[in-house]
């Protein structure tokens, strides 16, 4: 029996096929692994759905989307506001005419055909004559009787805190056109709005307050450094809100005359160069930060000019554009003459007229 069992095992070994070569085993294993990897990758990378491509219609009668307003959108808008529309009312001077434009004046920031005024590159002038007496009567009727001290204290206590949800941030653009619409939107549900001013406009807060009251017909009831409370009036009706067409984008600033001349007025070229070097080598009067509060800068510069002839301001991280805006405002408010803008530094000269008036005071 044992011999028969051995004989049967030998017979089976002879019948069994020989094992495949090693290279075939490697090829089969690599094929299986790559197939499994591709299958798993397809499972994980396959999106949950495939978006269907909508066929393009070849119908020539299909209307095309254009910027030209349709007849059912009530365009052009007609606004009864008596002033010229500008991007910024507090940071631009209508008396200074530009010498060029960075974009064609025919491109209106309000959009084509959206208002009944023509854009001239700087502003959209009002249409028709303005009756100042009628406007004054309407404003007084909206404001109503003056607020009592108790009412003012109640409004101030309600809206002056930093956690007030009726706040508008006024930045380097100043009192912009779209800001007026934001104020009226807040006035729909609140008697007053809190305005926080930062940046270049804080150099002249009187100018900011004037334009806020003039353009909105409101009343400033509280002012603390750079915080303002603008009251809407006793008889304000949100349903009779004025029509304020919005600007769709910020227009490019026009080109104005050169701010700093090669030779300052009243000095020779050598004297101007000497003044600039003296200002660069002098210690800075103060350091201005970006989007800071510059309420006391004008007073500090005036005080420094009582003893110094040249003053330097350090405007690190403020930006070249804001530096020039600060120089323009200081030129008009101090007054003084900017003689150099370099490496975010402003060098101001008090001028010969100021020096002569200090040398010969009136008795």
What does the model show?
The chain is α+β, with helices and mostly antiparallel strands and 363 residues long. Among the domains are: 85-240, YhbY-like (Translation Initiation Factor IF3), CATH 3.30.110; 269-359, Translation Initiation Factor IF3, CATH 3.30.110. Helix content is 35%, strand content 11%. The protein contains ten helices and nine strands. Strands 3-4-6-5 form a four-stranded mixed sheet, sandwiched between helices. It has a three-stranded antiparallel sheet with strand order 7-9-8, with helices on both faces. A two-stranded antiparallel sheet has the order 1-2. Helix 5 (177-187) links the parallel strand 3 (167-170) and strand 4 (192-197). The termini are far apart. The relative contact order is 0.10. Residues 55-73 have a biased composition (Polar residues). One of its GO terms (biological process) is mRNA processing. One of its GO terms (cellular component) is ribonucleoprotein complex. Residues 145-243, 265-361 form the CRM domain.
Main sheet properties: 4 strands, mixed
Q: Assign the CATH class of the domain at 85-240.
A: Alpha Beta
- Strand tally: 9
SSE series: HHEEHHEHEHEEHHEHEEH
Which structural category do the helix and sheet elements fall into? alpha+beta
Oligomer: single chain
């Amino acid at each position: 029996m044992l011999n028969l069992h051995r004989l049967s095992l030998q017979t089976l070994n002879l019948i069994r096929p020989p094992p495949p070569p090693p290279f075939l085993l490697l090829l089969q294993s690599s094929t299986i692994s790559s197939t499994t990897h591709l299958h798993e990758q397809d499972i994980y990378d396959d999106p949950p759905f495939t978006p269907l491509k909508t066929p393009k219609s070849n119908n020539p009668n299909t209307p095309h989307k254009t910027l030209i307003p349709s007849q059912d959108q009530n365009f052009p808008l007609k606004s009864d506001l008596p002033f010229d529309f500008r991007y910024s009312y507090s940071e631009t001077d209508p008396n200074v005419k530009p010498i060029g434009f960075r974009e064609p004046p025919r491109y209106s920031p309000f959009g084509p055909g959206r208002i009944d005024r023509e854009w001239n590159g700087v502003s959209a002038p009002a249409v028709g004559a303005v009756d100042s007496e009628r406007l004054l009567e309407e404003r007084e009727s909206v404001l109503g009787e003056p607020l009592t001290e108790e009412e003012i204290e109640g409004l101030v206590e309600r809206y002056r805190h930093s956690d007030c949800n009726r706040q508008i941030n006024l930045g380097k653009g100043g009192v912009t056109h779209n800001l007026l619409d934001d104020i009226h939107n807040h006035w729909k549900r609140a008697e007053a709005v809190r305005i926080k001013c930062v940046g270049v406009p804080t150099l002249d807060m009187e100018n900011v307050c004037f334009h806020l009251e003039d353009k909105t017909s409101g009343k400033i009831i509280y002012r603390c450094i750079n915080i303002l409370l603008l009251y809407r009036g006793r008889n304000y009706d949100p349903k009779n809100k004025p029509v304020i067409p919005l600007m769709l984008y910020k227009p490019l600033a026009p080109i104005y005359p050169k701010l700093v001349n090669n030779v300052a007025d009243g000095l020779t070229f050598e004297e101007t160069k000497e003044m600039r070097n003296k200002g660069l080598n002098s210690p800075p009067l103060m350091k201005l930060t970006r989007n800071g509060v510059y309420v006391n800068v004008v007073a500090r510069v005036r005080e420094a000019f009582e003893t110094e002839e040249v003053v330097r301001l350090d405007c690190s991280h403020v930006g070249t554009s804001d530096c020039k805006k600060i120089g323009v405002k200081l030129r008009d408010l101090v007054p003084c003459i900017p003689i150099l803008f370099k490496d975010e530094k402003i060098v101001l000269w008090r001028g010969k007229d100021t020096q002569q008036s200090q040398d010969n005071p009136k008795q």
